[in-house]
Structure formats: C-alpha cells, structure tokens
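Now for one record:
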Amino acid sequence: MQTNGQLFIDGQWRDGRGPALQSHDPATGRVLWSGHAATADDVDDAFRAARRAFPDWADLTLGEREAMLRAYAQKLERNRDELASLIGREVGKPLWEARTEVAAMIGKIELTIRAYGQRTGSSYAIGGHVLRHKPHGVVAVFGPYNFPGHLPNGHLAPALLAGNCVVFKPSEQTPAFGEAMMACWHAAGLPVGVLNLVQGERETGEAIAAHPELDGLFFTGSSRTGALLHRQFGGQGDKILALEMGGNNPLIVRPVENVDGAVHEVIQSAFITTGQRCTCARRLIVPGDDFGQAFVARVAEVASQLTIGAWNDDPQPYMGPLIGERAAQQLIDAQAQLIDSGARALLPLHRLERGPAFVSPGIVDVTGVDVPDEEFFGPLLQVVRVESLDAAIAVANQTRFGLSAGFIGDNEAEYRHFWRRSRAGIVNWNRPTTGASGAFPFGGIGASGNHRPSAFYAADYCAYPVASAEATAPKLPEKLAPGLNF
C-alpha cells in the first residue's frame, strides 16, 4: 500500500510539524517511510477532534458501531496481500508470518464483537435494576513494532466498539503500517475525529500521556516505558491505564518420549519472529542429567540449521532480521555480558553477512551464573540446569515478570503441580509459550502488566459499568417508612 508520510487528524491527512521521522526496511536499510513527527500542538489538535466527535460516536447504537468495525475488516481483507508485504518490509517478518498477522487482524473484529457482548453487554434484573456499560471518552493507544497491526488492533477495535474516540500513536519504528491501518479505518467510513493518527517518538508520546483531555491510555511495549507511564499516572484515578508488557519467560522441559516434538515447541517458543515476541521463551530450564544434556544439544542442532533471510526470500526463511541494527547490537552486547559473568555459549549468537540487522539464534548456558532479570528481546535463549522439578519451578519464578510460562513433559501431574506454583498470566503445557488464543484473555502480572489483560478481556478496560435502578414513573409505595407522612 502507498503511504504519504502524514498524520491523520480530524478527518484530514496533514504533515506533522515536528522533527523528521523515517522507518527503514531492516533487511536492506532502505528508507520505507519518511515524514515528520507530531508536535504537542498536533497532539492537541488530535485530542480536540476526538473530544468533539465523542458525543455523536457514543450515541450511535452498538449495531451501528459493529457495522463500522465489519466494514474495516472488509478493507483489511481487500488489502491483505499489500498489508502483509508492508509488515514484511517494515518489520522484517517472513511473508508467511506477516500473512498470519493480517489474518489475525481480520479475525479480531468478530472476536471483539463477541467479547463486548459477553463482557460488557447489558443485563436486566427483577425489580427494574439494569447493568449497562459506557465508554470512557477519549483514549490513546500506543502500538509496538513487533506486531504493528495485530497488537494495536487489539486495543483499537474494542475501544471504538465501546464508543470511545481514539488518538493512535504507532511505534516510531513502524509508522508506515500505522498509516496503512488508519487508511483502512478511514476507507471504512469512520466518522471525522473518531480515530486520529499521530506519528512520533518519545516527545510525542509524552505529549499524549500528559494531555488534559486524555481519559485512558492503552499501551503495548517495554516494561521500562510501562513503568514510567504507571508512575506518571499515579494519583490520577480518573484515568484508566492498561499496560501490556514483556517478560523473562521460563520454559521447563522434563523427560519426554517424543524428543523432536518437544524440541519443536522450544524452537517455536524461543526463535519465532526472531525472538521478538513478548511471550518468547527466554529461559530454558532442563534436568541436569543425560536427558537434559542430550535435549539441549538437539535444540542447538536444530537452531543452528534455521533458515534466516529477508521477508520475500524464496524459499521462505524461518527467521527474518531484527527490527534494526541497534537491536542486533543490544543482543550481541547482552550475550557478551552473560559470558563475562561466567556463562558458556553453546550456540553463539552472531551478526550475519546478510546485513547489520541479521543475527543467528544464540543459546547460552547460565547454570550457576548470577544473571540479570531482564528481557533480551531477540533470539537469545538462556539454559539453566536443575536437579528436580521443584528446583525448576523455583528458577522459573525467579523473575519480576509474569507474562508467559511453559511446561513440556509427559507427566500431567507434574504439569498440574507446575501450574499451581507458576506466576504468569499465560501458562502452557506441551505448546509454545508464544501460543495464545484471541478468544481468551492475554496479559501478565508483576512487571508484565497492571492487571488489565487484553485480547478477549480488552472489553473490560474499554468501558465502565453503570448500574441503574429504573422505573417509568415515580410512585408512592404502599407502605411508607416510619415517620414519613403524605
């Protein structure tokens, strides 16, 4: 799809008035999108447009807003190939994976409509008591780069369906796809001012988060930025904040009969999307015996043979580049830090000749090493060897995060024991840690979130409940309260 490097405010495409902003194809380094960031004045214009549009948008019937969301899904369907190509070019995802993201965006619309009805629909009780839900007003959505369509879509669709108006800031690394999404919403007939697109980096985000017209902010991104937002919103009980952040996710492996099946789940957990999913396994916890030794060796063997290439390579690669050269250098530095602390590289992560954003998968044994409790956002897997299941569970829980956790093993009783002791919002058995259904809630505890799960439960933070006792006319009761005379 063609992009013009502009913002979309109050129903009009316009140039940003801030610093120059670009995105690049991580496989080639070529400029993909070029424009200007939104200034504080641009952000103010976006909020004012959203506030003006709010009463009429909220007054529409739910069915009318549902029709608008379905029209948007039709625009996504009509442009699905171009959208997938744009994800591939701007993020580096292989085309096969980019196509799954667009499919998830399309599928999200009907899930959102169903979730609204189940989580925030109206209900009536005997005696004239009614439960309804109302939108917050004007909310902001901050999108990430790793799923530039699917993840912001998971905030935008339920927010709009509930009757909110939105100021949307995509990741500064994926402005082109954010613009393409906005074009699809606009083509679907969304009324003027209901959804406004502002592009930019930290300064733009700060202007959004501090705006007096903001009623809520829905964020997907790093725990560091999320913590800053949480502190900024401290004492502002009138604003709702939903944080969806990353994790230092553990994956426990116990003896299994189907070793290659288990290895497949590890590869899918650690290295899919070049390790750039918030649910990717970061720590592989295995028995410190012959099985564990052989299992890790097999994981390293399979990982060393993964095909790595550009989004449109033929045949398709398993992994693409990281989002950029800086991300690659951060991973190389993280691996060096681990090795300096005493870790042993079983499969060294290194930069590839294909380009500065391309890296190979890395596996590092950190058993007995004091390592930082950080999310290394890429294909770098740490191995920890333990002597028992309880020791494995203890290691798994040694993190301030709590997004996803996985257990691979044939013994269901062991899994149930792990499930009871684990601390995470997503806990999987013999499935990748990256496996999650949009028909269920998605979110974590600890430094991974603030108890506002997204996906099917996003409806909960997009509207607030209103309980009403109602009658068509006032009347005197048959029996008056003592001391009351008419």
